[in-house]
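User: Good morning. I'm curious how magnesium ion would be positioned relative to this chain. Could you predict the structure with it bound?
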Amino acid sequence: MSQSPPQPVVAARDLRRTYHLGEPVHALDGVSLELPKGSFTAVMGPSGSGKSTLMNLLGCLDTADEGTVEIRGQPVASLSDGERARIRGTEIGFIFQTFNLMPRLTAAENVALPLVFTNPEGVDRRERAERLLSRVGLGDRLDHAPSELSGGQRQRVAIARALANEPALVLADEPTGNLDTETGAEIMDIFAELNAAGRTILMVTHERHIAEHAERIVHLVDGETERVEQLDSAGRKDGSEGSTAAGTGAES
Ligand SMILES: Nc1ncnc2c1ncn2[C@@H]1O[C@H](COP(=O)(O)OP(=O)(O)OP(=O)(O)O)[C@@H](O)[C@H]1O
Ligand SMILES: [Mg+2]
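Assistant: Good morning! Here's the predicted structure, ligand included:
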């Protein structure tokens, strides 16, 4: 067999999505995007420019009217609903702006939820949830309900949940949108670690300084890619926010 170039984790071509609620809204009007393995991409753009719509399509939460999404070479449209749900549950970690935690479950139970896909018998689920929560600095908040946690802590539970199945792809829609600057920087440290460990990350943000943690910024305007900005190492933040040491304070 001949060597082919490495397959991107996600390849989206010419995505179009129109919402029909009264006047048709062309939320996405022909967007193409490839996410190479291990890449870190930010998406910026005005409110309503189609950022969340794009995330939902790439995350298999919605399907495009036109265009294709391939996840690791698999065209998503050719999959059954069940197969799509499995990809969503095992290959993709989704972090929503509003956290979407289950209010009646504890932090540990929330994190353990996605493990039903990979570990239906439930062996070690609790242990694994504990390990994930410790990794985001919440080892002492395992049995707190979301309402008993701060916003930043909830976001960290959502991140731990997104990582439960060690997904190849992490999709984050404004992961720091509701957080103060310091907590936002902590979340970016976690993302930098994930990316260093080989995870592919796509992150929507309104904040330039948050986007600068990525390797490139895709700028969306009116459902189209206005431009793709490559950040060289000079323009890129390294996750340690002003500190000179590499890999500061990373717990394992
Ligand atoms: N379910 C829906 N039904 C109808 N219109 C929708 C729906 N979801 C989004 N839209 C419209 O599609 C456009 C793109 O929405 P989208 O949520 O992708 O924007 P966004 O870039 O994420 O904005 P924001 O920065 O405010 O989150 C908007 O004009 C929005 O009103
Ligand atoms: Mg949005």
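The pocket of magnesium ion (ligand 2) is lined by residues 51-52, 173 (CB under 6 Å). Residues 239-252 have pLDDT under 50 and may be disordered.
Let me know if you'd like a different ligand tried.
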